[in-house]
Amino acid sequence: MLIKTFSQNPKIMKREIDICILSEVHLGTLYCKPLELLKYLKSIKPAFLIVNGNFIDKNQHRRKYFSKKHLLVIHQVMKMALDGCKVVLVTSEDDDFLKRFSGLNLGNIHLRKEMVLKLKGEEYLILPEPAKSGRKGVYGGINRLTSNINKMAGIFQRFGRSTENSRLPLFRKRKPSEAEVNTFSRNCAKYALKKGYKAVICGKIRNPEIAEIAVGKKKVKYLNPGDWLQHLSALEYSHGNWEIYRYDELDFGLPNPKLRVRDESTSEEEEVFIVRKPIASGLKE
Known about the structure:
By secondary structure, this protein is an alpha/beta fold. The chain has one domain: Metallo-dependent phosphatases (Purple Acid Phosphatase, chain A, domain 2). It contains four helices and 14 strands. A seven-stranded mixed sheet has the order 5-6-4-3-2-12-13. The protein has a five-stranded mixed sheet with strand order 7-8-9-11-10, covered by helices on one side. A two-stranded antiparallel ribbon has the order 1-14. Strand 5 (105-106) and strand 6 form a beta hairpin. The longest helix is centred in the middle third of the chain and has 19 residues, at 140-158.
């Protein structure tokens, strides 16, 4: 039996972090960034992975579009759970499919409407958005715009348009104004104080931020992981500190192919060795 040995690339070391929090992934839409998210998830090794709302788009059950790239993201999350990572899916009002299973535990995968994270004696309330603040509140206009974009995306899909249509202005979701961001973050801080917490982690508004918000005489620590539609950002907790991660293609050693310098190809002989001697046949000539 002959075996050929080839030179293999060294394994990429994963960054070990304590907690990773994602939000606004929207798998199943044309404007999602599944490949970038897949690269990021494969590059880290968190103890906790928390997806804070809108993991799968709310209108996905009405569509026939769910490409292999999006399915690979779900497969990677499942693989991380099998490898020991605790995965928590915090469902929002828009998670029509998942919110009915809130409270379910499947091994290392947990579904919750809200959750409390305890770190160094401090409790963080994690929720996608304050109760009853999405459709009629400051974020209602963005929700209506998103709904219209989803309807138009479905029309394009029926006519066989490819995912490259995400480059069209139609599929570029409107960036919330500064006033909307400030109002949303303040509502989150008020909601956290009402629940008895001095730190809150929210999603929904798609604006990554770590700040302190004054509510009367009290201050509330406010954190937002951003989204994987425009900012391609996440919250990471390691060595006792929170940081905002922003995706960069250069972090993965994949620069623009046009900028690469081609080296001269050198042919090397392959090493061949015998594992065991061939078994002699019992047939006589």
